[in-house]
C-alpha cells in the first residue's frame, strides 16, 4: 500500500480530523490546509474537519481557522501540512490527537508523524493535495471551493509561476483547477497588492540594503523600524522578495528583529543553494528559499554570516548581469 493510500485509509477511518499548518503562514499554508479540509468535507460530509492555527488578516480571503478546545484533539486524526519542523507547527497541540500524518514538500530534516508524505519536487503542498485527490481513485473529490484555495497556494509558492519550482506537472495540476471556473486573476491581484506601509518599507529596503563583492545582498530590519511602518497583520512577509527584483543580486537575506529581540532570517536565492546555510543557523527549507533564527545579532555574527552568504554567491555560475 502506498503512502497516499495509507493516508486515504486513515481519513476514511476517523470521524474527526484536525489539520494544522505552519506559523507565519503564506498562501500555500492556508491554501493547502483549507483545500485539504474542504476536499475531505466534500468527500465525506459526515466527518467533522477542523483547521488549527491563528487567523492572519492578510490571508482570510483564502480561508479562516477554527477555535479548538483541548478535548477536541481526543480521538482525532491530526494532519500537519506544509510544516517541515515541529517547532513551526501553528498550535502545538498537534501531537495530542490519536494519529499524526505529515504532508510536506520541504526537505524532511525533522521526521515526525506516524506516517509522512514528502515530495520535495512538488511546487507546493497545494499541488500535493491535488495529487492525493488524483491518486484516490475517486474517494477524494475536488469542488470549486477547494480548487480556489489550492490555486491560491500553488500561485503563492510559485510566485505566480515565475519561480524555478514551476514544472510541467504544476501547470497540468493548475489547469485541472481551472476546470472549476475559479477566478484566478482576482486571486493573483490579491497576492500582488501591497499596503502603503509595505510600499514604504520596500523603498527603505532598496535604499538601505548592502551588496557584497559577489552580488549577495542583505539588510537588518530592527523591530522599532518595522513597527514604524504600521504594517499590521501583513508584517514583513511581502518584503522578502523585494531585494531579488534587483537584476545583479543572486542571493539575499533579510534579518528581521522580533519583539523578543531575536532575529528571523529570510534567505532567498536565484540559483545558488542556500538551505545548507540556513541549517547552520538552526533553520532549513528549500534550496532557494529558506529561513533560520538567531537569538542575537552582534556585529561579529553579522560579519561572519555575510561572509558565508557572499561565498555562496561567489560560487554561482548561472546567468548574471555584469
Give the topology, please.
Blueprint: H1 3-13, E1 16-20, H2 27-43, E2 48-51, E3 77-81, E4 99-104, E5 115-118, H3 125-134, H4 144-157, H5 168-178, H6 184-192, H7 196-208, E6 210-211, E7 216-221, H8 223-228, E8 251-257, E9 263-269, H9 275-280, E10 284-285, E11 289-294, H10 299-314
Parallel strand pairs: 1-2, 1-3, 3-4, 4-5, 7-8
Antiparallel strand pairs: 6-7, 8-9, 9-11, 10-11
SSE sequence, one letter per element: HEHEEEEHHHHHEEHEEHEEH
Rg from Cα: 20 Å
Q: Please bin the fraction of helical residues.
A: 25-40%
| Strand order in space, largest sheet | 6-7-8-9-11-10
Terminal CA distance reads: 53 Å
> Could you say what the CATH architecture of the largest domain is?
Alpha-Beta Complex
CATH topology (level 3) name of the largest domain: inorganic pyrophosphatase (n-terminal core)
GO molecular function: nucleic acid binding
Organism: Ligilactobacillus araffinosus DSM 20653
Pfam families: DHH (PF01368), DHHA1 (PF02272)
Domain DDH: 16-154
Task: Summarize this structure as a short list of keywords or feature phrases.
322 residues, alpha/beta, inorganic pyrophosphatase (n-terminal core), Diaminopimelate Epimerase, Chain A, domain 1, 2 domains, six-stranded mixed sheet, five-stranded parallel sheet, 10 helices, 11 strands, globular
What's a quick, concise take on this entry?
By secondary structure, the chain is α/β, with parallel strands linked by helices. The protein is built from 10 helices and 11 strands. The strands form 2 sheets. The protein has a 6-stranded mixed sheet with strand order 6-7-8-9-11-10. Strands 2-1-3-4-5 form a 5-stranded parallel sheet, with helices on one face.
